[in-house]
Sequence to fold (144 residues):
Amino acid sequence: MDEITPARQWRVPASLPAAKLAGAVLLVALGLLFADGDPVRVAVAALAAAAVAGWAVRDLVAPVRLAVGPDGLTVIRGFAGRRLLPWSAVEAIAVDRRPRFGLTSETLEIDAGDSLHLFGRYDLGANPEEVAAELRAARPTSTG
Fold:
């Protein structure tokens, strides 16, 4: 029997980049609709649409935000890079809860000493509390 735990990944939900791209198209359409002959309004709408489209492209290029394996955690780095955090570097795995506008937002926090990695529900496609529990369960009991 093989006792190696298979790697588990958490990724952006597939519908999220599509919604962002639709939002970018909507911004351009609204900019054109309400431009009233003003090129500045069109330019501002196009700039906002480009920012939203860039955000969607990141979701398409690097959909996996977090992965766990026997060697440690792989987190997204920069626009679409990856970084392996060995288990020995992971100091804490926690979930931060904050009330905002009558709703409670949860953020998964992975403290690796020299870096802090934050993931929301839409980064993971799952509840941050459940992901934190899985990460804690996957962590080896001895790091030495």
Remarks:
- The radius of gyration is 19 Å.
- The first strand starts at residue 8 and ends at 11.
- The chain has a mean pLDDT of 91.
